[in-house]
């Protein structure tokens, strides 16, 4: 084969390790340091058309849908355009209202996922404008859309998507900055984000360098029958993606929740047998996040806290059930991508410990091309 896992144990691990290079490729030639903006010529949209957008609707399936949620968050935060993501598999069945001033964004690694493709066709049939965030050049979705951003992640073979997701996230960051800079995002804010984006490939590498430590944590998590992944606001789609990866390759039940909603249900399930992986970035919600984690520690629920070096866990650090994992800080709007990386390695090493086929989990396909 012209593309094989080579010296790596699996395609998934190879693709995880390729992320710094993939991140550089998706950003290459698209950042403008001088004006603190991004250039996305493939969108086929001039400044006036970009300004006329009143809403952004993102469509994708599986992990692409979760990255879409992260993207919607960035677009709202940086461009102040109302944005949300929806599972493409549900979209067309509710006879959606298609608006001329909405920008529809289809996200897909393969460009062949049938539900995403049919959503694109339905929107275009009703006169909507759709752009694609697609990895495979010339794929069905890439051919159907009005414009787009190619991800340049390179071939991805493992069913569980890793490097393609990272490039999707970065493409959303570029889109958010470009849409922001024709609105109220200032040149200095734009430059702050461009500088942060340029630092990300190296920051991803520093997380990959902690693989051994993450593998040890994964060995313990793999013993649990059921786990929670929790985060708030920017961290919530990260938790969803983390739970998805974990369940699809380790076959352990993993459920994502907003940390703020724990007290409305899941706390009833917390005991020493049910671990929680919690995302606690340094942001405006750190203290509230930590308060919720005390509720878990009080019930002796094992906790893996993924956080930033300058976050003080306070009393929590004394609990024997608490493990701390650190990722470097970016700018707060871009933190989610760095929080996602350790979750990939936790899922990967949990599946490896359980002696499962990490590249080809049972019952799942790399791309779902029939309805
Ligand atoms: C399948 C894969 C997922 C992927 C999803 C969407 O479910 O197992 O890893 O996220 O399809 O695929 P796409 O090619 O559209 O990104």
Automatic annotation (TrEMBL):
Domain (SIS): residue spans on this chain: 45-185, 217-361
Domain of life (superkingdom): Bacteria
Reaction catalysed by this enzyme: D-fructose 6-phosphate + L-glutamine = D-glucosamine 6-phosphate + L-glutamate
Keyword Iron-sulfur: no
EC number per UniProt: 2.6.1.16
Keywords, comma-separated and alphabetical: Aminotransferase, Glutamine amidotransferase, Repeat, Transferase
Protein name (database record): Glutamine--fructose-6-phosphate aminotransferase [isomerizing]
Organism: Nocardioides nanhaiensis
